[in-house]
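The passage that follows is intended for readers who have already worked through the single-chain material. We present the inputs for a multi-component assembly, then the predicted structure in tokenized form, and finally a short commentary. You are encouraged to pause after the input and sketch how you expect the pieces to fit together before reading on.
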Amino acid sequence: MASGETKVMKYEPVIGLEVHIELNTKTKMFCRCNADYFGKEPNTSTCPVCLGLPGALPFINQQAIEDCIKIGLALNCSINEKSYFERKNYFYPDLAKGFQTSQLVLPIAIGGWIEVEDAQGKLTKIRINRAHQEEDTGKLTHRDGQTFIDYNRSSVPLVEVVTEPDFTDTFQIKDYAKKLQQIFRYLDVSNADMERGDMRLEANISVRPVGQTTLPNYRVELKNINSFRFMAQAVEYEIARQIEAHEKGEKLVQETRGWNEDKRVTYVQRSKEEAHDYRYFPEPDLPILKMSATLINEMTKAVDTAKEKDPVKVAEKLVSTGMSLASGASIARNPIKLAIFNEVQKEKSVLDMDWKDFGNFIANREINEENINLVPELTKKQLSDFQSRKSGLISNSKELEALAQEVIDENPGMVDIYKSGKTTVVMALVGGVMGKSGGKADPGKVKAILERLLG
Amino acid sequence: MKLTLEQVKKVAKLAKLNLSESELAKYSEQLSKILSYIDQLNKVETSKIDPTYNVTGLSNAFSPDEIRPSLTQKAALFNAPQQDKGFFVTKGVFQEE
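Having made your guess, compare it with the prediction:
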């Protein structure tokens, strides 16, 4: 596009991410209603607290707080000794109370970092501003000018992780999202399934001339995008759109945009002109949180233990059994294959296993099963497949017999020698069968078959 | 303490109140008076006092993550002015594109 004669100003994107993670606790954040709303009849998991009925008093879910601390620690954050909840006030029927219970001034975790890869494989440190605890909203369905509300999801524990505006390309964003997902899974605090809405990404994007160090005076928020792929596409589109606007001298404004997958464009969802004013104030119904050194130590230990489940660490451990790097990485990423491998390692009867071969074998198998409960059966099947492959025709003596007969028919001279009493010549025939089987026959068994056939 | 008309309009908007011109004038005066009264608190020396978030003096009032019975759907919707097939229903609240 640049003609080379005119000076073209170069622009760079400035991107920050907000990620919401729905925790997998049994109960909601501030009441003990069942938090598993998936596939339930509407409004069957609610109570006066999560319906915001007058006089109802909230109770903090201890498990959720511990999960939030763990997330903070896994992201190298410090845990605030003192933390408290605040009310974020707004009128919208997704929460019946008229506010969301969230955190602003003293969140549970602050000031962390995580390393992400860019397209060139270069690692960059992304600063984590905070990880705070809040609650999910009810689910709204808009139809025929009316809004239908299901409060089953209202007050399900949600943790929000906010980065500093340190991202410069979409590759880093994808890597960040994938790494977060892995962390949530090995910590076992969330299923982190984007399509189900367990994990939601929001990006704040602006564009500035290269060389400018201050942040632009606007930012566009991309919201309600439910896959890594669409988020990357929306971000690419937004960067291009904003650079074009800058080049044309158009003014960019603070707004919220969504992604239209059919038209492959971002579109305005909410303009910031109706300025949000959430009037945060400390929640008077919830006592403050004090994080004791004991609790933080305990959580740190739990995180360290969970980190052993980090795919990178798991792969290292697998490779140490002798399998290839690629096989180790592949098994580490596949929970079912990993479970099968671990299951086999536990079996005493296979102590003389060739782990190198078995690892490579499992890594290359096509296993599409996703139900973790089927692992015992899958393990039996894989193990017997492996053993029969390893020992070639052992499980199929008919085939061995056929090969043996072939060798006998092809070597009448040797058969005569055998029959004359020089039985050691059978080893030459065994070699013939081994050759035909491609080395996949058990020599002892072949010998026995030959002796039987030769009478 | 005198509130500007703009400030009063903003407060009205946040509270989802549609005020007429005469109401705006009336509430401007009343709100300003209320704020002036509250403003007396600013004279108290508080720089060495921890903010009070909560009057109970409690901390870490947790509840274990164990499911307790919820309301039935019928009970949950009992006072809803409008409902349909188990959902609460309101006037449409979202305009997209």
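Commentary: Confidence is low (pLDDT under 50) at residues 1-5 of chain A. Chain A touches chain B through 51 residues (CB under 8 Å). How closely did your sketch match?
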